[in-house]
């Protein structure tokens, strides 16, 4: 892993008008009575996701500044934090750790310390340690302490400040149960943690909420609904090292008696309407009574959102609405691995009579606001999204803690989602807003200078100051469309040369990116070793990993992820690249004949039904690499368009194809001639065998009985105008020429 920091000054990562962003307009009245038409939905980041068991993911905090802080994880696994200044309109974004883990379970959580310093916590899914960073200055995300790590076998950090201590709850230990680590020095160090909740199933899931008196209210399940057919939900309150029931009676003391057992907790939901899964817990601001949101599953395709409220003497449970089925977009022909992933629901913890949720409407997951005035007996609803395009989901809404009304009232994931890891999700984080400001003051592009190959493109995204500018429409222009074109920020190289790409706002503010288009550097022989950014590379090989897009000579043409299985295998075979979608690895080569060798294998898992194409021709189909096996396959390929495209795909039960290495060796180089130079000496020497092929490699004519010149052979075979390959063999040497018939 690499601990790498990058900083962006942003107005809004809105970029171009893409399907995952826009969703209509509404008319609102601003201060002073002026009406304006603004988007209901805007974009926080084009690339962001989260799970729902590590929180807070967003917080509003007033100190010397008035700011909202956000955190998320990207598709590639970058750990991100951002801040929005409500007084200046400035939006800052920082990458805390590049490519930490491509898994939405690894999303970070935030704590604003009493002195205004920000602490960010994150851990990998089944990670080794929790990572902790503290901001150098209060209310400032631009500078941070060194990484500090604590505990073991961890997921889902959930921090609170309790008096002079900082408590972090998480799932941890060899039994994957709720644990608690405490810092008594303002988060500088933490103890290694203690078991907090014992018993139940293999993996109890928890949500926490802190009351104004510092007490921590806990909702916990028996286990995972996939494993527990009667998954129940329980409650306790934790204060001053004591566990209490909702009515205030003492259960036990943590210091003297250790972890509370699930069997000692009171049951909130007994699985009477199907197994359950907790989503949120909050407190009634008037009474201080706890309340919960959860999903119940009469079946895996019938998810019901429910509400539980403690009325002072008992827990009352009621249904809010039917929610449809799971939201992951299960690939055809496969079984959904997470059938209890509901669209999600969350309290507005400052006003918990308001609930935001995601449910299916005509097969599409949309966001709604539900409101109750009678503790769940009845509900009214309002659609936040509607008419979302097919293939797009709106899921996992959150409300920033202590949020400022009208700003980021609800934020959710919007995009495509098939799986929680390994590039299986491609979502933006979008939000509802009802406050806007006027003109754009500054436009910033994510790139100011790029180099492209002809036929290759890059997506430019624009950022704005202020962040909540009312009109973020841009006009894109290229200074020379023969060199590079631009459509909605997507720049495509056309031919060698230089061009300027300009993005201009409606009020004339603009930003420019310089584009240089140049030809690639061609190679003829290479060994590509696919692995992680830090794993060793085979001797003489070129290392390829998830940060190797197509460059001057080679690279991936899509997003992949990586694995390294350790030192028990050699450097070439121990690690690999993988993905679920079809992705092309391109190598720019000189024209000619090539011998290619591909290795595919994984020490720890099998990978089935993989397909490999080279330059569009299927070479391997539905092959399986058994666990611990290494497949080695070689192919001869004739290249006529100066590139080798290796396309990898899969259609099996395992979600990924893999590749460990590719070796390319040129066996003969093509020489270009045309009919006007047919009398060249080299081309007209008698040869033992000769063939004429089209550019796909299909042989049209062949001669192998007696020596003959190419000129004589061509005169005997009529060819239409076009491009052909002529292969000559003589004295055990083979030469291939590109022949242009004019």
Automatic annotation (TrEMBL):
It is an enzyme of class 3 (hydrolase). InterPro entries: Big_2 (IPR003343), Galactose-bd-like_sf (IPR008979), Invasin/intimin_cell_adhesion (IPR008964), Secre_tail (IPR026444), Sialidase_sf (IPR036278). Its EC number is 3.2.1.81. The keyword Hydrolase applies. Keywords: Glycosidase, Hydrolase. Residues 439-515 form the BIG2 domain. One of its GO terms (molecular function) is beta-agarase activity. This is Beta-agarase A. The lineage of its organism: Bacteria, Pseudomonadati, Bacteroidota, Bacteroidia, Bacteroidales.
